[in-house]
Structures
1.
Amino acid sequence: MLGKVKQLNELRKLQSQAKSLQRELEQIKETVEYGDIKVTVSGDQKIIALTLGEEERKDIVDAVNKALKEVQKKAAKKMMEMGGGLGGLLGKM
């Protein structure tokens, strides 16, 4: 039983050290600028801030809109494969 208590205390100590390390990592910050892009990340590998130039912002908007358009086409095709979309349901009303 004494061995189990000792192991439990060791585990608590390790958990405390892990939490302390996590807090320390959160305090580490690094900012990198690449052209008109500026990104700040933390030591726990999270993006804290992201600044984009106008051209990069436009490229992202264009890419997202293109992806949405493509997924809409695929969704429409899938709905047609499942019985003509909603047309069949509306006709039965």
2.
Amino acid sequence: MSEVFWASFLAGSATLLGAIPLLFLRRVPHMAQDAFLGFAAGVMIAASFTLLGEGMEIGGSFLIVIAGLLVGAIFVAVLGAILPDNIFARFLKIPQSGKGELKLAWLTFTAVMLHNIPEGLVVGVGYGSGDEALGLLMAVTIGIQNAPEGLVIAAPLKQKGVPVSRILLLVAIAGLIEPVAALFGFWAVDVVAGLLPFALGFAGGAMLYVTSKELIPESHGHGFVQTATFALLFGVITMLSMEAILF
């Protein structure tokens, strides 16, 4: 069991590594901010379709994955509608200056965290099924993919002036949910294996919703549409390249 924990812990910790370079830039120009957001959008799009593809491969019916996708998107939409911005502002320790301003940062964090839960379950199920090589392979693969996802969380938070300590805390929470999910997957492998297609669809739907509703519009909001668009493509290429190398 300790091997499951440490493998998934290191995979989750890679999320934190991806955020660190951005945090220590004193000032990020608008063009660079939009590029970071565009890159984050590309990473999330590619990661979403990876999750959906995995769900359809291991599931008995693609309808289960589609149901998860729709429920995931609706969940994040409702979450964004019912949670007031002043809660985000107080937690992030920044002044609230406009309605909806912090939804991008908060929903992006939520989507990445939801995405990390089924990834942790996959690692746990791999070990729990007795195939330790599969569990280790999934942990290494997910860890490498997690690095750019740290940037996904950090970019909108940095843009809103959130203190570095709070950004690191949120990125760590999003990443370290993986070992918790992995241990659950290891202990309840039979139950979790049946739920994985829906969970993967749920996470994919949540990420696609946030990307379309928040990340892409925000990256196009300062006149650097071309920069943001090519950064998005680079984000997709980055994730596709990782998949091609690792699988």
3.
Amino acid sequence: MIKVGCCGFCEAMNKYFQDFKLVEVQKTFYKPPKPETAGKWRKDAPSDFEFTVKAWQVITHPPASPTFRKAGIKAKDCGFFKPTSEVFDAWEETKRIAEILDARVILFQTPASFKETPENVENMRQFFSSIERDFTFVWEPRGWSKEAVKKVCEELNLVHCVDPFVAKPLYGEIAYLRLHGTHVKMYRHRYSDEELAYLLNFCRELNKEIYVLFNNVYMCEDAKRFISTLKFD
């Protein structure tokens, strides 16, 4: 099964619920919404609509990250899965919203500054061995070797998230694909019909449950075009 959606609501929520069956919640990364807000989203969405959640940046990103300033958050001892109270409190808040949304998948996106070091691997090991495994955990690394990614994902049972136009997933019970555009135009890239055909073939070869999340400027249009491709496949 191939599930298609966008990283964030790309149009009015009520219309999005009509056009799509999946969304990756972005607000949980910057600053989690109030439980009442998440509850309203779940109530307003169709029963077969699926939310996935992007984990709060307090877990994954250091305080110097520009995303903290964007969210208006002041944090001190956090990020990089450090075994601190701030990090674990952030996990509890992420989990709380995920439960309200009935989400089964949580994405942990780490920045390029999260290097492939023994300390960072140990932090991940401690973090994921300390929290409840009631969800499918997805990890989107930056700049790590294939060997290290595969080893960490296998040991900690994490789904390796990739951009299908850049790499192939190395491990996971499901496939979780995030499409960020190209290196030339970055997020302003508009996917061509040929690229969407490539994406379809890429998904066919994986032969498992697949989440396809568009994360470019034209994500709404491109995601709808890909859904149309699936209907005529």
4.
Amino acid sequence: MKRFKYKAKDQESRLVSGEVEANNEQLAAKLVRQKGLIVISISPSSDLSFNFIKNIRMRVTGSDIANFTRQLATMINAGLPLTEALLILRTQAKGSMEFIVSKVLADVEEGESLSSAMGKHKNAFSKTYLALVKSGEIGGVLDEVLVKLAEDLEKQEEFKGKIKSAMIYPVIIIGGMVAVALIMLIFVIPRLTTLYEQFDADLPISTKIIIGLSKFMLRFWPLVIISAGALAYAFNIYRNTKAGKQRVDTLLFKLPIIGNLQRQVILTELTRTLSLMIGSGVSIIEALTISCQVVSNVVIAEALKDITKMVEKGFPLAFAFARHPEAFPFILSQMIAVGEETGKMDEVLQKVSHVFEVESDQKIKGLTAAIEPIILIVLGVGVAFLVISIIMPIYNLTTQL
């Protein structure tokens, strides 16, 4: 598809301009008219402009996808044809979602299925999302699947919001402490150093350490910045290697409190996703295959790969999960066994997901409550260190005058 820039007038005769994507100029003009505009001129957009706009517009958030899914489900459930529902959503969408919905609509109008059209936008629609939409199309229950998807995405966003909210306070405090320390080292300490040298003051060891650190920062700050950037870049490269991801993810799981919390968060999302896929008609093997591709932790992903192979060989799902205690708690394999016995795997996994979510929420609150006194202690120690290192030498100088 090509990109076209246009100039047009709206219903109030105001000039507007923009860009649309279509296979040819006639279809591009049609898309502009569908926006309720009167076309004045339309011409191909330059590749540079297209790539720049594409890179900007391809950025979407989980909230964008959740809202889109909820609205699409509501309209299809109300009896609107898919193309008409997408057309309405395109006129309402802005930025990244307008770009994506326009492309999906164009592909659907040309005869592609919704899952196939969405599959061209993997940055917006996950493999789980696409598999569920496809199963809904095959089973003729697309509206029901979209409703479940919307609910799942909304729960994910709510859960992520809780984690972010819990981390805001410590991040702000730590960031503020680092900023104050840098201001002191770069601007305040050098002036005090000059004062101390003028009076040949006898300084405590803590003050000498701070002065030495300040001089080092002033003299070698380019080296400090370059070194920090190089270390971050090297770590990022290592983190993206197979061995690096394995090592880092394993270490993260072994961290006290944080490691267990991370595992709980991942398992909450995993069990919820498996429940949704299995309940929507996706086979267990396909659900496991998709899950091991989208899960963020390598330890969990490798365990899921092995579980998938075992299930393909005929082993019970509960037995396969029980073989990986390093990744999954025993309670999960027990509950899966219950699901296999009752034939209600999706319902059981949904309940397990809720349990993991509640436990994660409690641990996040506990971690936040534990971090606050630790931060206060660190602040107290920092203030005491500053008093001894900076204020006391100044006080001694004033008493000597």
